[in-house]
Amino acid sequence: MRGVHSSGLLRVVQVTLCGEPVARKRPGDTGTRRRISQRGRFPGAPRKDHSEPMEATIADDHIRFRRYSFRGATVHPAGVIEPSRIRDADWKAMRPEIRTTFGETLFLSWRQQSEMERFCARNGVTRRFRFDVWGDLLEPFLDTRFEPAQERATLVRLDGAGFSSREVAEIRRRLTPLMHAYNFDAMVWEWAYLGLFDLLNAANAPIVDRAVQEELGEPAAFYDWAMAIADRPHSSEHGIDGSGADAS
């Protein structure tokens, strides 16, 4: 059995049932999730759809993004982040995350998890778990079949974070062409987890038809929209809050 952790919580557990991989969702959900195509990778396996969209160097008192491919980001195509601009972070997320004082989420490579933890400890940066709203919003675009009870549980979580069923439907409707082009047409076949990082990848990666990406509108405006949605839930109401070290 293999576990995949997202934002410090058990997000997905991959098991085998009668020879067929089955994914169980995070605690609180009922039922199981079954892959549709059987073509995707196992949870936690490296993505093979494209190279890392960022390259960063972590120094004692700053993080230098030598390459950051997400259009609209304050560090695109390159830039520097100092501790004074960092509101909080989560180095135990599926991908290490930095949240700036302006509400922007910046990602680092998963290989830099330990290095980022040490950076935060040196500079007194708070580790904070934030409700993974994009993980729930993008759930229908996974290569997975969901039971009705699971779909209802997802809507309940989103409602608790301030997203009405109508708003959820509107967000998903806007993103349907993009996420279908990314996960199915481009044959990524992700079946366990899609989040904010994957959304930004879909909006920028060359594996997606540029015409589909252009339908999203001006890249910076789309980026800001995605960031605002990610930052809406109140972190302190959904998880841990500690300074410079693991607060779990």
Structural domain count: 2
Q: State which percent range the strand residues make up.
A: 15-25%
Oligomer: single chain
Number of β-strand runs: 13
| Strand line-up across the major sheet | 1-2-3-4-12
- The backbone outline, from C-alpha atoms, is globular
Q: Structural class, from secondary structure content?
A: alpha+beta
Radius of gyration: 18 Å
The total of helices stands at 7
Largest sheet: 5 strands, antiparallel
Query: How do the helices and strands follow one another from N- to C-terminus?
Result: EEEEEEEEEEHEHEHHHHHE
Helix content: 25-40%
- Mean pLDDT figure: 82
Terminal residue distance: 23 Å
Q: Indicate the low-confidence ranges by residue numbers.
A: 1-31, 40-50, 235-248
Name the descriptors.
disordered N terminus, PH-domain like, 3-stranded antiparallel sheet, 248 residues, 2 domains, single chain
Could you write a compact summary of the structure shown?
This protein is of the alpha+beta class. The chain has helices at residues 113-123, 133-137, 148-160, 165-185, 196-204, 210-214, 219-230, and strands spanning 2-6, 9-17, 20-24, 33-35, 54-58, 63-68, 79-81, 86-90, 97-100, 105-107, 126-128, 144-145, 241-243.
Model description:
With 248 residues, the chain is of the alpha+beta class. It has 2 domains: 2-48 and 131-230, no CATH class; 54-129, Roll (PH-domain like), CATH 2.30.29.30. The protein has helices spanning 113-123, 133-137, 148-160, 165-185, 196-204, 210-214, 219-230; strands at residues 2-6, 9-17, 20-24, 33-35, 54-58, 63-68, 79-81, 86-90, 97-100, 105-107, 126-128, 144-145, 241-243. The strands form 4 sheets. Strands 1-2-3-4-12 form a 5-stranded antiparallel beta sheet, with no helix packed on it. Strands 5-6-7 form a 3-stranded antiparallel beta sheet, covered by helices on one side. A hairpin with a 2-residue loop joins strand 2 (9-17) and strand 3 (20-24). Helix 5 (196-204) packs antiparallel against helix 7. The radius of gyration is 18 Å and the shape is globular. Mean pLDDT is 82; it is low at 1-31, 40-50 and 235-248.
